[in-house]
């Protein structure tokens, strides 16, 4: 068929897609302005209630001692083959079994996996990375350095760079978004997955369109689409919004000690420390609309019944995309969003049962 005819036939579809994207971006930025007003009021309220802290975050000069706890593992760096970036990771149990690779969420870093590093290093080579832009890993400032394709290539380079051909991928929050995509496009590198508190982006997209309440649960996503302003608001009153996120009595991490809180705030308090992590969000809508994708990697999915950020109904939506028999999903009563830190014992029980046959 002549190229001109093909172009003519596809023109209406292309125009419709462009109009749909333009409409989507108009909604996103309208929501971003509303979110900016709301979070601006919250941030300035924190400043007024704690005037001595001022309008800026206090840079931490010394990392808290818990970040160098030798029982968690050895601190190492890996230069990625594809990008040349250096990623920081903590490793323990080398030679004890298969690679178990941990991917953290926001606002966290490798330290969010401390309980799992202790638990599984006896039977696995456990590795918790600081993702690109986080912690001691390299942090390019350009938004285009945080596309999904580049982030998935980072995971591939970590697995191969550590000398493995496959891994057990354990991921939470933003790390889980990466893991879902990675299992679709690099299935040979993932033997099993353990996912906590996150849905694939295509599932999240379709579910949110049908359940408007999910947009309100994830309202911060719209704020983070804006340049520079989110960094400013999150750092005001010495990062009080982040502190509240992590320590809130109902929505935060129970029993998080001041030292453990500083383990997360230390990196964000460094110059430019928030820009890399927020650039993940600034690329979220880049490929909208997303096509539904079939999920086939054997996966353990853990979901807190009291997760304030993601609706329980997403679990059913995820299940509907899976090849039968490949998903083991559990909604955990009384638990929230931060299961790896808030309920490690229960998480470990499910993981050991899920992985038992690999160790026989």
From TrEMBL:
Keywords: Hydrolase, Membrane, Transmembrane, Transmembrane helix. The keyword Transmembrane helix applies. Signal peptide: none annotated. Gene3D superfamilies: alpha/beta hydrolase. InterPro entries: AB_hydrolase_1, AB_hydrolase_fold, Epox_hydrolase-like. Pfam families: Abhydrolase_1. Residues 98-339 form the AB hydrolase-1 domain. GO terms for molecular function: epoxide hydrolase activity. Coiled coil: none annotated. It comes from the Eukaryota. The chain crosses the membrane at residues 22-44. Belongs to the AB hydrolase superfamily. Epoxide hydrolase family. PANTHER family: EPOXIDE HYDROLASE. This is Epoxide hydrolase 3. The gene is EPHX3.
